[in-house]
Each structure stands twice: as C-alpha cells, then as structure tokens.
Amino acid sequence: MLGGPINFVNPLSVLESPGTLTGDFYALNFEKKAKSGRVILNLGPQHPSTHGVLRVLCELDGEYVDRAEPVLGYLHRMHEKMGEVKTPWQYIPNLGRVDYLHPLAWNWAYVGAAERLAGLEVPERAEYLRVIGCELNRIASHLLWWGAFVMDLGGFTPILYAFEEREKINDILQIITGSRLTMANFRFGGVCADGDERFFRLIREFIPYLRERLKMYQGLVTDNIILRRRLEGIGPIDVDMCQRYGATGPILRAAGLPRDTRRDYPYSVYPKLEFPIPTGPINDCFGRYLVRLREIETSLAIVEQAINQIPDGPVIMDKAPKATWKLPAGESYWAVEGARGQIAVHLLSDGGKNPYRLKLRAPGFSNLSLFAEAAQGTLLADAIAILGSLDLVIPEVDR
Amino acid sequence: MTFDPEKWLTSWRQAGAWSLSRHDPAKEGLRVSAFLPPQALVRCAQELRAARYSLLDISTLEAREGLVVTYHFDSLDEPARLAFRALVSRKKPVAPSLYEVFQGAEWHERESADFFGLIFEGNPNPIPLLLPDDLPGPPPLRKKEADLAPLAKLGLLGQAEILDPDFGDLIGQPVGSGHQGSQAC
User: Fold this and answer.
1) A246 and B54: CB-CB below 8 Å?
2) CATH number of A79-361: 3.30.70.890, 1.10.645.10, 3.10.620.30, 3.40.50.300?
3) Chain A residue with minimal CA distance to B78?
4) Domain B5-177 is of which CATH architecture?
5) Is beta strand B32-35 parallel, antiparallel or unpaired with respect to B82-88?
6) Nearest alpha carbon to residue A153 among A216, A229, A215
7) Which of A22, A115, A265, B105 is packed most tightly, with the most Cβ within 10 A?
8) Domain ranges in chain B?
C-alpha cells in the first residue's frame, strides 16, 4: 500500500461467504471475523462524518452496527520521531500541527515538560498570556466541534455561526501568535510576544458578545427537538468504560467525574482563577454536548478573570534557551488539559543535542479507542452521532 | 480518599519487583514507579483496575539494557499518577498484553509494536495501527547501537531501591542502593 494506489473494499459489499471479498489488508483482516450474509461497510477515510481522515470498517446487521473497527494512520506523520531528530527549540512548531484545533495546549504540554525537566522559571505575565491564549483556543475548538457535530447530524447552519465566532478568536490570537492555525507562541521560559492594547480590547468586546450568542445557540440548536431526538439516550459511556479505555476530558466529565488536569495537577496561574468543572448530568451524546457548551462558558470566565489580574512585567525569562539549547538528562511526564482531555508529554533526555525519546499522549487516541464498544448494537446513524460526540481531531489521534 | 504511594510500593514488592523508585512529582510528574518482572504485569494491572485506576498510555523506549515499556496510570478519584515498567530483551522483545484488564491497551500496544517491533502476547488484533502493513525496514523508533543510552542516565530509576541482583548487575547498581544520578537538581 505504501506509495501505491489504495485498494479499498467496495463501499457496500455483501459477504456471501468468508474469503469472497476483495480489499486492502485491513478490509481482509476485518472480514475474517464477519458472519455470512452481513454487509461490510467501509466508511472513510474521505467521508464528511469521519472528520479529517478516519476510516471505520463496519459489519452491519440490517441497519445495526454489529462490529466496528477504526482504521488509523492516514494522517500519521511520526511526530515522535521528529522529536528525536530536532532540537527541543526546533520542535516547537510541530506541536501546533499535532492538533490544529487546540494547538496552544500542545505547545504548553511540550514546553512545560521541558521547563520542568530543566527547572526553568516562567514570568507571571507570560503565565497569564498562556492561560488567556489556551482558553480562547479551547473556546474556538469547542465551537468548531459544535458546528461540525450538528452538521454530522444534518443541521448545516450552525457551523456558519461557529466559524464567525472562531474567526473573531483567530483575530485575537493572531496578535500574540502571528498565525491563525497551527499557532506556536510558546518558548522555553515564556511566550514570544506580549499582547498589545488592541489584544485586550478585542477580548473585552468578545466576552459579552459570545455570552449573548450562546443564549441564541441554546434556542436555535440545544432546544431543537430534532437534535434532542438524535442525541438523548444515544451512546451512553459510563465511568467503567472510561476507566477501561483511559478516556479523559469532556467524555469522563459527562460520565459524572469532575476530573480536570487544571484542577488535579494545578499548573501555571490556574490556582488563582475560580472556575467550576462542568460534569454530567447524563453520559449520553447529549450529555457530552452539554458539557462542552458549559466549558465554553467556563473558559470565558477564566479569560475574564485573567485579563483583570494580569500583572505587568516581562513575557519571557532572562537568558531564555535558544535554538541550540540542550535538555539536561532525565525524565519528565507532564500533562495539561486540552479541549479533548488530558494531553501528556513523556520527555526523556540523555543530555544530548536532541531529546532521547518523546512520547505524545493524545487524548483523542484513547477516546476513539472506545468507539468500537460504544457503537456496538446501535443504528448506523447513531454510530455517526457517537463518533461526533467524541470530538475527534484525526491529526492528534494519528500524530 | 488520600493517595498513599507506599501502598503500591508494598504491593509491587510482594509481586517480585526488580526495583522500586520514588520520584520528584514536580519534575518527573509521578510519585512512584517500579520495574516489574513481565509475568507480574497483568496481576499488578488488575490490582490497579480494582482500585479505580485507568491506563493513560504505554510509552516505550529503547535503552542499552533493553526495551523499556512504561505503563502510566492515574486514579479516577484523585490525582495519583504512577507508573510501572517492564524491561524486555532487544533481541526478542515480548511482553504480555494488558488487554484483558484495560481494553484501551490494545491500541497503545499496537502503536508500540509499530514503532519498536514489540510483540504483546494476548493482544486480540495484533495488526499495524499507525504504520502501513508493508512498511519496509526496521521499526522507526529503534536506535543504532552507538546511540543507546543506559537506563540510569535517563533518570528512569529516580531514587531507586534495587531488589533483584540480576537487574542490579544489568544496570550497574548494587542491590539496595539508592541511586542518586538523576537527582542532581
């Protein structure tokens, strides 16, 4: 398959008897366990509901999914290997490309792990700028998820609203990061640029604006009877399933547990900011929808406090590491709360020019791994709803 | 409920751990870890499952002494991150699968298999996950002999108590020693 044409299973194939289908390695492997008379459906990797390039093989019993298997790797770029062949400083722009919807959280996980390994002190103003950027970025990520998720369910309009707000956030983040996607303003010991008067003014205007828009979303989408019928009672994911698959973030919180890395392993200036951790009330698709919408409000509250508390001062430490900086030998495992759950970086150095090993823990990877079990026995259309409710960003899953 | 790392050190000692380590959580991100004999992994994972821990990830690396497979766990009820590790031969890299205990292990194991050529015995679907099925060449994260670093240098041992004499010989630490190499900060 490498470099050659991809030979997928036919989009809709009825299995007469085992061994009669044609297809690629994964399709043939999947077919081995299929029962006679079943329809094998190949969904993706180019399919609007499999955001990015996820591929899912489904064994259908009528309209019900009897067995599903995600096939990954279509967006795999071996970021972990790149971490071993670049200096720590050169690697920072990679992080925005791991998850393009919440790039600043990935920036933070990597830079934070290196700072802890090397014992670097970050100025307080830089910590506030990190929090403001990361939370605005979380709102943008949740908004895009919201629009795309409703589009999966057949509602086209909301994504246009979501993009309008997201553009406003990009206007703000562009001031401190210089980019609108794959942002990378984190540096070891601080951030690369301070916010100017316009940056803070736009945030002050944006907070009440989005709060008003969220009320409209409530009436337009959340209370919409079609949406409710598509989501309520669909795809329950309980604490036991989260535990067995290592699911974190909104999925675990919708299951009822108030686990949040910002609270459990307090970092940066989060201990100085007051914010609730939305949980529940139900663990189905609608519960996960509600948790994410409430997290938008939470992030707004965090940003509002942060812009009022932010002190003057430098945004990067004195004698901050430069491009040829070497990590001291040792191990560091550090995590932050991303839009999709716990992002962790396992960084090991032998004192050489490049890190010895870099492991990226993507929350979406663990969250998606429970899909096969959650989708078993559901209608195909409901399986799409479950997939959307997991908030997948495939570049993060594949890395 | 409060996290008692000593409880896990005791449990791992009884399971025949090769070494027990205490870490600086501010720097290394976890409180305790242990090198366990491969045959004890599944039982120790079952104890963690029963105590409401979940498997965060499986992080493999190649060191001079062998492939180190690190299993990171955290509690569902409180911040209590910890890890146990297995050291497997570089020539014949085989480890038991944790799939029966934590179903999420299936994908993490397949990823490590892709990147390091590890074989996880008992994995229900041991096919490539992220890499193509016909990728030529050695697994991409394996290192050249000359580039391999010893375990002690990578700080994996923290403040370690070595329990197994063979393991101590392998890493160059006498039994019972408190290794200080990575605690220089």
Assistant:
1) yes
2) 1.10.645.10
3) A264
4) 2-Layer Sandwich (3.30)
5) parallel
6) A229
7) B105
8) 5-177
